[in-house]
């Protein structure tokens, strides 16, 4: 344990027990090899058995999570220390029930010793949250290419031998030199997958849920805030408040201005300052406009409700009440116009309003004389030509600029990439159907549907899973049937097990694509804050 002094008082950490193995060559000690395995691809061989993936949660005093709660995690991939590694993907969630948030862009690299063997490590930090209650295995996958030495190449046998026995260069430097110079590296494709221990997800309790609870789960406090010192009915005032702490800031709504019935508030602008790599802690600032609807004395304050997962209960935060004298009467239709603050019209006001007389200026029957140079008949064709050329250049410049913006528009480029991915996936699915290859057909069909549904719902394609489709589509959906059959094929490699009927599944794929097209116009629900 460690002992430190805080304010003159000595405190100690809880002792941690670990095992030191013999012949350690790396800089750090690590626990025994647990938490993941490699799924070989294309004959991964030693690269698969020597590489694994670990998913680590920080220590906590409970074994369950709540729906909407975000937990920080560390994802670490272990590769042989002398292997050359090329990552082919970022860590991605496998299965249902949870999503990854704020995955670190640049992973940390290092070396660790596990069970007496040195590994090259690549680590990411992220947050995990759940979308529904139940028991779900938390499984992460990662694709990589590992360059491993070819077993048939024996570099030590190729070293020059001395006629007097032994190696000609009996020195570790020359040993490593010949190892690197004469060993041929062979690329092996591997997919690393964490163990996927089940995670207990519990629903938020309905008992005691506050009226204005918006889904914030964590431990929070109110920071700096700003309330108006004076107000006039019908005139907007700026409100600013900061919420600090640890939890799911993505699902957090702005604190409520009380008394809520006396104020009309508008959508806030937000600013988030993360406190760690996973954005699990930090401070979120809300700034919004509020218009008082009633005059007189009011005790104005801000209130915020959240669920504390450690205590398993809802909590409420409030700023001190500030007495405020609001000038003016209650908001009523504006006199003479029949318009109210919200833009509605009053029929009584329109009847009482009298028309305002309008006087027009008299016509001028004669034109004044212009400049002699501009009105000379000989110069008029030249002036018209210059003016036309000038206007043409302006129009051409606008057209070129619009074309340049259109070509470099990120949304247009993203849409084009999505269309290319979808076209390629559909082409592969068509070829696989003609060849009777069920595995290739379902893999390509799912990728095509993920791309099209992701475009329709403005979501990353890889986040479209069976869980997402079940929430948005009916049970008889063709897309849902394709996804379920693709999952079933993962556990039944023999196509005969599922009775692959190419024509039937191709027709079902066309129906699923039409379902995705219908979602582009029919799905008008707000996007959920959590995304896979």
Structural notes for this entry:
The protein has 11 helices and 25 strands. It is an alpha+beta fold. A hairpin with a 6-residue loop joins strand 21 (269-274) and strand 22 (281-292). Helix 7 packs antiparallel against helix 11 and helix 8 packs across helix 10. The longest helix is centred in the C-terminal third of the chain and has 29 residues, at 380-408. The model is unreliable at 24-32, 39-46, 153-158, 161-170, 333-360 and 523-532 (pLDDT under 50).
Q: Give a count of the beta strands, DSSP E runs of length 2 or more.
A: 25
Average pLDDT rating:
77
Low-confidence stretches: 24-32, 39-46, 153-158, 161-170, 333-360, 523-532
How is the quaternary structure best described? single chain
Strand content: 25-35%
Instruction: Name the overall outline.
Output: globular
Look at the helices and sheets and give the structural class.
Answer: alpha+beta
Task: Give the termini distance in whole angstroms.
Answer: 39 Å
CA radius of gyration is: 34 Å
Reported for the largest beta sheet, the result is:
5 strands, antiparallel
**How many helical stretches?**
11
Helix content estimate: 25-40%
């Amino acid at each position: 344990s460690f002992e430190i002094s805080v304010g003159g008082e000595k405190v100690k950490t809880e002792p941690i027990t670990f095992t030191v193995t013999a012949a350690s060559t790396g800089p750090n000690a690590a626990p025994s090899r647990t938490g993941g395995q490699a799924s070989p691809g294309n004959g991964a061989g030693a690269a698969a058995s020597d590489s694994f993936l670990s998913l680590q949660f920080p220590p906590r005093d409970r074994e369950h999570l709540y729906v909407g709660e975000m937990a920080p995690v560390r994802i670490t991939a272990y590769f042989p220390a002398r292997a050359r590694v090329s990552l082919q993907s970022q860590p991605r969630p496998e299965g249902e029930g949870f999503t990854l948030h704020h995955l670190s862009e640049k992973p940390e690299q290092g070396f660790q010793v596990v069970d007496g063997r040195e590994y090259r490590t690549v680590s990411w930090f992220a947050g995990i949250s759940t979308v529904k209650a139940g028991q779900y295995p938390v499984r992460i996958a990662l694709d990589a290419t590992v360059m491993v030495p070819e077993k048939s190449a024996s570099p030590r046998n190729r070293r020059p031998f001395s006629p007097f026995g032994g190696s000609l260069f009996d020195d570790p430097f020359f040993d490593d030199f010949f190892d690197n110079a004469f060993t041929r590296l062979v690329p092996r494709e591997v997919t690393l997958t964490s163990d996927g221990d089940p995670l207990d997800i519990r629903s938020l309790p309905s008992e005691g849920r506050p009226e204005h609870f918006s889904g914030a789960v964590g431990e929070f406090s109110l920071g700096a805030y700003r309330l108006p010192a004076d107000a006039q009915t019908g005139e907007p005032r700026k409100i600013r408040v900061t919420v600090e702490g640890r939890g799911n800031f993505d699902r957090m709504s702005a604190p409520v201005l009380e008394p809520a019935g006396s104020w009309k508030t508008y959508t806030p602008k937000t600013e988030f300052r993360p406190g760690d790599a996973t954005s699990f802690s930090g401070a979120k600032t809300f700034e919004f406009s509020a218009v008082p609807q009633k005059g007189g004395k009011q005790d104005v304050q801000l209130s915020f409700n959240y669920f504390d997962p450690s205590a398993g209960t809802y909590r409420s935060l409030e700023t001190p009440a500030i007495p405020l004298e609001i000038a003016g009467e209650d908001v009523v239709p504006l006199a003479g116009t029949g318009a109210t603050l919200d833009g509605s019209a009053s029929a009584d006001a329109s009847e009482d309003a009298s028309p305002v007389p309008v006087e027009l200026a008299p016509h001028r029957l004669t034109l004044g004389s212009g400049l002699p140079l501009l009105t000379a008949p000989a110069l008029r064709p030249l002036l018209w030509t210059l003016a036309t050329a000038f206007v043409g250049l302006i129009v051409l410049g606008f057209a070129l600029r619009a074309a340049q913006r259109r070509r470099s528009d990120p949304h247009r480029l993203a849409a084009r990439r999505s269309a290319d991915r979808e076209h390629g996936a559909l082409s592969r699915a068509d070829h696989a159907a003609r060849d009777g290859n069920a595995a290739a057909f379902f893999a390509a069909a799912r990728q095509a549907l993920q791309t099209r549904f992701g475009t329709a719902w403005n979501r990353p394609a890889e986040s479209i899973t069976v869980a997402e489709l079940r929430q948005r589509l009916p049970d008889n959906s063709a897309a849902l049937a394709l996804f379920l059959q693709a999952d079933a094929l993962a556990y039944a490699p023999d196509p005969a097990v599922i009775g692959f009927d190419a024509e039937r599944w191709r027709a079902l794929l066309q129906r699923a694509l039409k379902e995705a097209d219908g979602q582009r116009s029919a799905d008008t629900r707000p996007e959920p804050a959590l995304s896979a």
